[in-house]
Amino acid sequence: MVLLIRHAAALILALTTALQAAEPSPHAIDIPPWFANSFLDVREEMRDAAADGRRVMLYFGQDGCPYCKRLMEANFSQRDIVEATRKRFVAIALNLWGDRETHWVDGVARTEKELGVFLRVQFTPTLLFLDESGGVALRLNGYQPPERFRLAIDYAGRARPGAESFADFLRASPQGAPRVAAPPAGLLREPPVAVTFPRKAAQLLVFESRDCTACEELHAALAHPELRAAVATLEPVRIDAFGTRSVRHAAGEALTEAELARRLGVHFTPTLVYFDAEGREVFRAEGYLRRFHLAATLDYVVQGAYRTEPSFQRFLQARADRERAAGRPVDLW
């Protein structure tokens, strides 16, 4: 009888394990096992993390996101990045389209997708590094390569309100030999220039820096006829995020390029900031983007889709579906 009971218990355990394994993961993409198994109450997670001398890192991902996959495979496969992240943060994964209940620092209950809307998450991955008071010490909108991500972890682990900005922190960090990447000829205007409104057309400010490999890839993508044509419908200006050339902004105010970058809260290069003809910022894209997603940001603004579809991700999905339905390949990466 004892033997039968043991066999029955083993069978039940095996069936239970199999059923659990068959259940879909609540996360949009496979995440490292060291991410926290959380009840998604950010206030409690902050208290527990602080008691352990750490902060909270929130990760928003989604199915089919090549940049999320890149984050996991290129960044979180490197031992030093993992060790630094685990030492300083409690990592919590959220599905941008998920239905699990969360509680933000304001105590309000929201589903994951509602929280994504509330926090204005437009790109995946988006990572929010919270300080001990619930403020956002650093926000990464989109993928950042390992060398930049290491610096982000270092900064976010000790940033204090009102202290050095992340852009200044990056500028002070060794970045290797500087080089200037040339954009496609005749595509982007250069300072000195007036960035004043109203204008005849929407304006695109492309913030770059001298040591930016992603800027070089951006230029290569912009040389594509489809993207070049879209940029030509705007008034595009190339800005050195740390430059000293003159930019006349708003009501005739004279600023340097670096002052304009700080005024607009530009922390990364490249950053694309789109304004409508009246001078309202309508969209921005930060960090590393491949050609398909870069073209989508241009379409989102040029077509005026941001007026009716506040979610860039939904616009992006609909655009990809149209391309596939027309028999055209969709290369997300």
What is the structure about, briefly put?
The chain is an alpha/beta fold and 333 residues long. It has helices at 2-22, 42-51, 66-75, 79-88, 112-118, 146-156, 166-172, 213-222, 225-232, 257-263, 291-302, 312-325, and strands at 55-61, 89-95, 101-103, 109-111, 126-130, 136-141, 193-195, 203-208, 235-240, 246-249, 253-256, 271-275, 281-286. The chain folds into 2 domains: 42-163, Glutaredoxin (3-Layer(aba) Sandwich); 193-325, Glutaredoxin, CATH 3.40.30.10.
Write the layout of secondary structure elements.
Blueprint: H1 2-22, H2 42-51, E1 55-61, H3 66-75, H4 79-88, E2 89-95, E3 101-103, E4 109-111, H5 112-118, E5 126-130, E6 136-141, H6 146-156, H7 166-172, E7 193-195, E8 203-208, H8 213-222, H9 225-232, E9 235-240, E10 246-249, E11 253-256, H10 257-263, E12 271-275, E13 281-286, H11 291-302, H12 312-325
Parallel strand pairs: 1-2, 7-10, 8-9
Antiparallel strand pairs: 1-5, 3-4, 5-6, 8-12, 10-11, 12-13
Characterise the protein shown here.
The chain has 333 residues and is an alpha/beta fold. 38% of the residues lie in helices and 20% in strands. The protein folds into two domains: 42-163, Glutaredoxin (3-Layer(aba) Sandwich); 193-325, Glutaredoxin. The protein has helices at 2-22, 42-51, 66-75, 79-88, 112-118, 146-156, 166-172, 213-222, 225-232, 257-263, 291-302, 312-325, and strands spanning 55-61, 89-95, 101-103, 109-111, 126-130, 136-141, 193-195, 203-208, 235-240, 246-249, 253-256, 271-275, 281-286. The strands form four sheets. Strands 2-1-5-6 form a four-stranded mixed β-sheet, sandwiched between helices. Strands 9-8-12-13 form a four-stranded mixed β-sheet, sandwiched between helices. Helix 4 (79-88) packs parallel to helix 6 (146-156) and helix 9 (225-232) runs parallel beside helix 11. The longest helix is centred in the N-terminal third of the chain and has 21 residues, at 2-22. Residues 1-24 have low confidence and may be disordered.
